[in-house]
Amino acid sequence: MKYLLLIVVVALVFSMLARKRARPPAVKPDSPAQPKAQALSMATCAQCGLHLPLDEALPGQGGVFCSGAHRAAFELAHGTRS
Ligand SMILES: [Zn+2]
């Protein structure tokens, strides 16, 4: 009778462990998901220091610029326009 009780207790413990293992893993809220926005490559205006996406920057002599006016002002100030 003593061994029967021991067997029942062991069986209960094993069934509880099996149930815990069968449970689907909890979804972590901070699980690494795919980033929605890719990092844009940024450029800095050589005239005013504004950061802007590289595909919106205007290339010029001496760097890239946020606008045509800043490109003209930079080239005028640095004498790159002849
Ligand atoms: Zn600028």
Outline the fold blueprint:
Elements: H1 2-22, E1 42-44, E2 51-53, E3 58-60, E4 63-65, H2 68-77
Bound molecules: zinc ion.
Question: What do these coordinates show?
Answer:
With 82 residues, the protein is α+β, with helices and mostly antiparallel strands. It has a domain at 41-82. It has 2 helices and 4 strands. The protein has helices spanning 2-22, 68-77; strands at residues 42-44, 51-53, 58-60, 63-65. Bound molecules: zinc ion. The site of zinc ion (ZN) has 8 residues, from loops.
Structural class: alpha+beta
Say which molecules are bound, naming each kind only once.
Answer: zinc ion
Q: Estimate the mean pLDDT confidence.
A: 82
The gross shape turns out to be rod-shaped
Low-confidence stretches: none
How would a crystallographer describe the biggest sheet? 2 strands, antiparallel
Count of β-strands? 4
Terminal Cα span: 107 Å
Radius of gyration: 33 Å
SSE string, helices as H and strands as E: HEEEEH
Helix content: 25-40%
User: Order of strands across the widest beta sheet?
Assistant: 1-2
Measured by DSSP, the beta-strand proportion falls in: 5-15%
| Total count of helical runs of at least 4 residues | 2
Briefly summarize what is shown.
This protein has 82 residues and is α+β, with helices and mostly antiparallel strands. The protein has helices spanning 2-22, 68-77; strands at 42-44, 51-53, 58-60, 63-65.
List the defining traits of the structure above.
82 residues; alpha+beta; two-stranded antiparallel ribbon; 2 helices; 15% strand; binds zinc ion
